[in-house]
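Hi everyone,

Forwarding the result from last night's run.
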Amino acid sequence: MSGAIRPLQTDYDFVDNELADFFRHHDLAAMNAGRPQVNEEEVTFADDGHKELLETIKTPMLNNEGELVGVLGIARDITDRRKTAELIEHQAAFDSLTDLPNRRLLIVRLNQSIANCNRHNYFSAVLFIDLDNFKNVNDSLGHPVGDELLKQVAKRMVSELREGDTASRLGGDEFVVLLMELSEDSVQAAELARLGAEKIRKNLSRSYAIDKNTLHITVSIGIALIPMENDSADDVLKFADTAMYHAKESGRNAIRFFLPRMQVEVDERLRLQNDLHQAMLHNELDLFFQPKINSELNIMGAEVLLRWNHPVRGNVAPDMFIPAAEKSGQILEIGQWVLKNSFIQMDSWAKQLSLPENFHIAINVSPHQFRQKNFIANIEQLLGETGVDPKYLTFELTEGVLVENIKNTTIKINSLKKLGIHFSIDDFGTGYSSLAYLKQLPVQELKIDRSFIRDINIDQSDASLVETIIMLASQFNLDVVAEGVEKVEQYKFLSAKGCSSYQGYFFERPMAEEAFTRLLINYPNYSKNIK
């Protein structure tokens, strides 16, 4: 019928209800504003599901009396324009071949990283990566094969990164990786950067299958830490680039740091870790024992000390290899060896000798060991395997470990105390010394760090501090061991203040098991040392 009136259609006839509500919201906004409003609206059409990005101008409609009667909407399709703009923006920030961030975007992120590192006092790292002899691939197999190789290199590089890290391509066969927030310690950050670079180097060195060709490549990597002084992003890239050329000069397929000092530290730590692994295999580690002397000047026990007799280096100082073992995680294996062999040795002495009352050997327990969830179960197992009586054992823990999670620490200590094991706070006074935690922790002994003992006869502040620690221990009914007693004057001062035990060269140096066994058999009194 020619004069038929078509039914009124609304937004709900063209799009889903949620989107229709969104349109109505814009309509109301225009009517409430009383002036035209420009919006962008993405529309999914109900008839065929296709999407369009529309720019809409919505203008309030008034009648002759100036009353609001509706809104007029005019829309135009800007889908292609937006896609073009996004493409241009992407091309400006990303490499067209690998789709990695390009130099422009890298500089932005690098500047942000430098600012964050300076603000929050941590270290990040820049890895400058160059494919060795890449020109040969292009020259012999052609640029299409070379381009495909670069694409695969980029994918492998990204696969080795954490969320928040950046892999970028500067151009040609040069890539840069930004490793974020590695550590607050520069040496540890350098080690983590080296490990990250090594993972990338190994992954990129695996063979590539491209156009019926099997390709093998190596890479040279230069590393620079950030922040470095007040250097800019361009400076840091230059430093990492310089380190990369040092890697090439060393024979390629290598990793080098920009700062020679940093390279030496990392190389030395890596050698130590490798040598430590061999030390465990070849029985190069030994237990030494430094006697602990009581107030009657008799032996009351010993501290167990780890020694390493390297076949080339000779005797390696513990303060050199213990930190390296802690950072590498080897301390868990080494600590287990120390515990087991200390238990075995203590059980041997207990069965063969007539030991004095309250005799203890003190074993340093690494923070990494103590934090292990199975630490208590592990100790119980070792006690069962070795047969040692726990009453002879003292575990020494540093203040930092004890107060890290005081509730959990107290539970662990009480569990082991029930077995008969004693506990001592090592290096007391150098960390978190606090009456609050001292009251809570179920320990039996404090050890005054040797750094306070050294100058007690000439430095009044050290003397006062040591006297305070001894008085504090007395109030809490704790034994006190003074470490590093080397002179008779130190001993006399400590004795006059009521110190209960001593350890140091004035009495005995650390000694091997045979020597300490002879000492126990002879059972000397050290009164002769006092003149």
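Residues 260-281 form the longest helix (22 residues).

Cheers,
N.
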